[in-house]
Amino acid sequence: ETGVTQTPRHLVMGMTNKKSLKCEQHLGHNAMYWYKQSAKKPLELMFVYNFKEQTENNSVPSRFSPECPNSSHLFLHLHTLQPEDSALYLCASSQDPGVAGELFFGEGSRLTVL
Amino acid sequence: AQSVTQLGSHVSVSEGALVLLRCNYSSSVPPYLFWYVQYPNQGLQLLLKYTSAATLVKGINGFEAEFKKSETSFHLTKPSAHMSDAAEYFCAVSDRNNDMRFGAGTRLTVKP
User: Fold this and answer.
1) B-chain residue closest to A89, CA distance
2) b vs e for B65-100, b when ≥16 Cβ sit within 10 Å of the residue's Cβ?
3) Other CB atoms within 10 Å distance of the CB of residue A1
């Protein structure tokens, strides 16, 4: 596999469920990101990890919990979500933190909260 | 903090016509600027980027963009639209800390 892979591509969950989104990058990058994409709104940066350490939490509610066990894997754990959390969640990676460069995106996980 | 504004959430052109997608930025430091494209049910992919070299930047699929500091603009153009160009386009600005901010996007429709 190449690039950035996200699973699952689609997820439907109730407000009381607990689920996780997974992201894996095969590019040897050192920084990974979670973005939220909602209709008619700019992409919202949620979390940034540089060398497995969280460097940014963009005022994200605690019902979203990220985990980065190594430079290649990033998870987003979800629990007690709200319907307004329904969106496309995009994972991205970049080569070097602290240097403005290209982000490489996965295809996203489409989340629907009932 | 830096930000971008994309003028026009929808742009419609005829096949073969000029494509012009507008982007204005705000940044307190010399910016890095990007255009990304998103096709349906896919993630974003890079079209082109400006990182303080030549002000006219050429990207993939025949797109180009010109950095104009005096106008704080980074508009995306393509001389002749193709049906396959129909997608959503995002302008983004980044500082040297890799804090990338995206615009709200412009959906391009290409009519036959």
Assistant:
1) B43
2) bebeeeebbbbbebeebeeebbbbbbbbbbbeebbb
3) 7
Interface test with A, best of B46, B47, B51, B98 (most A CBs within 10 A): B98
Confidence of residue A50 (pLDDT cuts 50, 70, 90): confident
| A100/B41 touch (CB, cutoff 8 Å), yes or no | no
Q: Which of A48, A100, A106 sits opposite B94 (nearest CB)?
A: A100
Closest CA to B101 of A75, A48, A50, A63: A48
Strand order of the sheet with strand B64-68? B3-7, B19-26, B73-78, B64-68, B56-58
Which tokens belong to A57?
A: 């939490």
Q: Give the whole-angstrom CA distance, residue A59 versus residue B10.
A: 30
Q: Nearest CA to A56 among A92, A105, A4?
A: A92
Give the phi and the psi of residue B10 in degrees, each rounded to 5.
-135, 135
Q: What is the pLDDT of residues B89-103, one digit of tens each?
A: 999 998 766 678 899
Q: Which residues 6+ apart lie within 8 Å of A14 measured at CB? A: A113, A114
Residue of A48, A56, A108 with shortest CB distance to B43:
A108
Instruction: Label residues A4-42 b or e (16+ Cβ within 10 Å = b).
Output: bebeeeebebeeeeebebbbbbeeebbbbbbbbbeeeeb
pLDDT in tens, A58-109: 789 999 999 999 989 999 999 999 999 999 999 999 987 666 678 899 999 9
